[in-house]
Input
Amino acid sequence: MLTWEDGFEGREVSLVFDAAMADSEVYLNGHRIIAHKDGYTPFEARLTPHLKRGENLLTVKIDGSENPEIPPFGGQIDYLCFAGIYRDVWLKVASPVSIANVKIETPDALADTKSVTARVFLANPEGRAFAGTISAQISRRGGGDVATASVNVSANEAFLTFENLTGIELWDIDNPVLYALSLKLETEHGEDVLTHRFGFRTAQFTPDGFLFNGRPLKLRGLNRHQSWPHTGYAMGRRAQEKDADILKYELACNIVRTSHYPQSKWFIERCDEIGLLCFEEIPGWQHIGGTEWQKESVENVRCMIERDWNHPSIIIWGVRINESQDNHDFYAETNRLARELDATRQTGGVRFITNSELLEDVYTMNDFILGQEEMPGNNRGRVVLRDRVETTGITRPIPYMITEYNGHMYPTKRFDQEQRQAEHVTRHLLILDAVAGDSNISGSTGWCMFDYNTHKDFGAGDRICYHGVLDMYRIPKLAAYAYASQGDPKDGVVLQPVTFWARGERNVGGVLPLIILTNCDYIEVKFGEWPAKRVYPDRENYPHLPHPPVVLDLRSVTPEEFGTWGRVWREGTFTGYVDGKPVKSLTLPADPVPTTLEVTPDDTALRAGEKDAVRVVIRVLDQCGNLLPFFEEPVSLALEGPGRIIGPADHTLKGGATGFWIEAGDEHGTLTLTIKSRRFATSTTTFTIN
Output
């Protein structure tokens, strides 16, 4: 029920759904208000005509079945589309004539003196005559006015220009400076306000690579689904923001692809805040439906762009159904509409077929070459990516980007055998190196960030696609450090041997060849009583990576130095050096034993009434502080206070770790998390809800 409030009098009242999956209808007091056939973009249900004093019956009907008339449905999909209202819903109360949206552009972002244009769209559902003014103000993040402007308005669109702007900072990946445009509409029908953030930057895909703010930038990132264990799509702001933070700060990515649909505004806004570039695309996976389906898909283009056109993090619109066949008329229309709505960004269309018709600005290609031409058995060898001209059938120079690789070609669990994990790591490294060494390729986004639930027709026997470099709880696999190690050591030193440090984990015994993922200049390695050896990054096999791995093999050590089969196994110590100074050291014990139950929440302060949820990771560590990958005993969880544990109360650790989320309730207070284990003393963690 929706109860009438005095503030509704003379105002426009509506419900704004950030998204619902998938076929939605909204009724008020028995009257159907709106139907929306898209599970990923927002829609607004105008309540005003049927709203009455007292109690109002609000009914939301959502059909989550795979309706073949709604993208992405109609064929097979290798991910789950979880039904229901899974994003926020807002009650909106506005003036009868209000500000619906604004398109902000910075046409000369690289000039010394800059300008801003703003195209303002008004909502006037009753078609009222009006006259008034729009006043606008640009301000810096943290305060401080940049410019003001105003314009008289008597129609449903208005245009504002700000010129001769000086002292403006660019939005960049290392310095994502945001500005805010605040609008105020005043008419005889009342006032309305709207604020959008934006940034000054340029982004251009060229045949010679990607240019960001006029300089070359090699794109390096991963694809991301918006799913979580136990809740599907339904996770709030904090969890969305955390994924962006993981990509940027833990995996050292500079771009993410929102596969295969527009994702939460909280995720995109966080990309804006931290300087993570974004490739956003319309819903779909391989299948193109009939006429009505295609009309809905074209509307998906409109909804995606009109929602997100002010986000500086978004650098390209994906206007082709992922991995679909050519369809000239359909894709001519998606591209036409995208360019009409937003001429400031290029279009891309992800395919995996060769010689595909290029209607977009950028030829974006899924290159799974490592699944089709198997690597040598010793995990070594140079990768030659598909030839661009042979792949595209286009001889003229064109912008080109690789949008997926690996993934389903070599699914790997976090708790798989060491030898499989080592090859998983190598496959990611080899593609990263090959892309880094080809100036004609703008960059790449690997498949994918983390494991995800799927249909019975895909994935492993438990219906999970183990395609990620993280598991479903965002706990890193060893391949995650292939990305993390490409970051600058000043932002975090990476020193990760790709081993469980047990002689019998590999088919031939021992740990050689041993990959150490690191961004150090060199490392020193000590095995047992043998003298320490200095070993440098392997630029012979990875000549193009910013930070090649250190590889211990017969080029750098002898088998005797690393304990051949039948000899006593020793501990190993690894020390990384930057600028000649030791910056990180770790020891892998010869006889690891479970010593510590580590409980690490992402935060201990939660917000009441927002479905606010924080992740908690449990790890079992050995006597040297390393994850103990062979520990797979159960732990029991209990929570006291106004909140809940998302998922089961009993977990079996896999590969020495597990994760879960704690969700705050509507009341302020304290939560006490208790974790019991047969092996360790009981652990308690306290959370506050404000």
